[in-house]
Amino acid sequence: MTQGALADLLSEWLPAQRWFAGSGSRVRQVEITSDVQLAAGDPELRHLMVDVVVGQERVSYQLLTGLRAELPPALAGASIGAMPDGRIAYDGAADPELTAVLLRGIVAQRSVGPLRFGTEPGAIVDGTAPGRTLPALASNTSVVFGEAAILKLLRRPFAGHHPDLEVPSALARNGSKLVAAPLGWIEMPPIGQPAPAQASDAAPVVLAILSVFFPRSSDGWSLATASLRSAHQHGAGQHGVGQHGVGQHGVGQHSVGQHSVGQHGVGQHGVGQHGPIPDFSAEARLLGEATARLHTELAGVFGTSALSRFALTDLIDTMATELSQATGVVPQLREHEAAIRARYAALAEPGTEVAVQRIHGDYHLAQVLSTDGGWIVLDFEGEPSVPLARRRAFAPALRDVAGMLRSFDYAARHEALRHPDDKRLAEVASAWVSRCQDAFCSGYAQIMGSDPRTGGQLGSRSPLLRALILSKAVYEAVYEARHRPDWLPIPLAAIAEASR
């Protein structure tokens, strides 16, 4: 294979991909840093690592490149371009014949060049299960095999212990029923490091993770937004929760990203046999209980600690620095900057104690699945823009609580934003989010023994939770300004209210 010709094709193809980080920017250089043949013949499969330079930034991507003499119509959308030998290069992740090579490699615990395929001890994986590739998301592509396993192909892998393999593996081995248990993985040493068979202390680069798949499930975002639409149609949304509660909502989706939907099945937008449920508070309460159990399990496996006075100062300084950076991206934040900083500074008051532990780190409705057995928590990678060391570090469990409370608000404001002139919908959405947030916190308190909104102090609002909610909303504002400007009013409105 001529690497120079393929690199030229990739410079045109990569910017059009959903998971490409430099959307809208010109690619200055594409360098293939690793090229491993995983299957010969027609089709041929080559595993590539490529470094892409966009502006002043260099980002490493993982590609599965297929090569065929003729491309079937079903794969036309995956075409990368014609090679000098006449074959067509294409995205092999879209080809069931080639993704099957990955599944068989995991089952066989294969080693090819620097690549190593592994399985969890005792995992049972059907290596003959047919695969179907799901729509690409912001940072990965997923392939469902049969009805039992899903392979997440990490498009922008990084060196180090990957939280989305590390955390679910540790919890599942400890008996947790709250996570999609990993079944296997694919990894390689960092570029320039020895192959797995040789001595190396460097943490591997996790390339793909195979996990348990939940075919009869719905993601929380789809369920919540469907509930809101139903509440609007039914009036004030005072109808009770259906007979079946959580987990009877038909086929759903394994979701990844900032309130995006799309990976655990086909999805029916939260609509089950009996239609959407106007009042989502029962599901929200169960989700609060599941979140508290998750935090308890994480604390049991990874331990806990408390922030020292100096570490608390560092936390405040980090949030303040992020706010300063955010105002440069979102100028509208400046009118609320002083109020936000005051909320952050309140954490420095004497007597403030902050317990910390491993947490989810990017917790919202699209990261949870409603299944027949209850809520399942997905995607422990954390916020992709945050350095790996910080994502794996201990943090306040209230950061996850803040994320989910923001997510309920996001769902409500998103529906209202779609119909800006519908005052009745705005009223219904406001009441809906209040019920959901109250129910979630009540469920969390049922397990933990105290309401996260008060920190156990009757009638007192937790300054930490308020600060973390604002910090999350600031992050959202930057994200929307860069990726979905039409959604920017959602976090800005929430910030305006919370900073009063």
Instruction: Give a short account of the largest sheet.
Output: 7 strands, antiparallel
Roughly what percent helix? 25-40%
Shape: globular
Structural class: alpha+beta
Short précis:
With 500 residues, the chain is an alpha+beta fold.
Topology:
Blueprint: H1 3-13, E1 27-39, E2 44-54, E3 57-68, E4 79-82, E5 88-91, H2 96-108, E6 111-112, E7 115-119, E8 131-133, E9 140-145, E10 149-154, H3 163-173, E11 182-188, E12 205-212, E13 217-219, H4 220-233, H5 281-302, E14 304-306, H6 309-329, H7 337-345, E15 355-357, E16 368-371, E17 374-377, H8 388-392, H9 398-418, H10 423-448, H11 463-483, H12 489-498
Antiparallel strand pairs: 1-2, 2-3, 3-5, 4-5, 6-7, 7-11, 8-9, 9-10, 10-12, 11-12, 13-16, 14-15, 16-17
Helix pairs in contact: 4-9, 5-10, 6-7, 6-11, 9-10, 9-11, 9-12, 11-12
Describe the structure.
With 500 residues, the protein is of the alpha+beta class. The chain is built from 12 helices and 17 strands. It has a 7-stranded antiparallel beta sheet with strand order 6-7-11-12-10-9-8. β8 and β9 (140-145) form a beta hairpin. α6 runs antiparallel to α7 and α9 (398-418) crosses α11. The longest helix has 26 residues, at 423-448. The N and C termini lie far apart (61 Å). The relative contact order is 0.10.
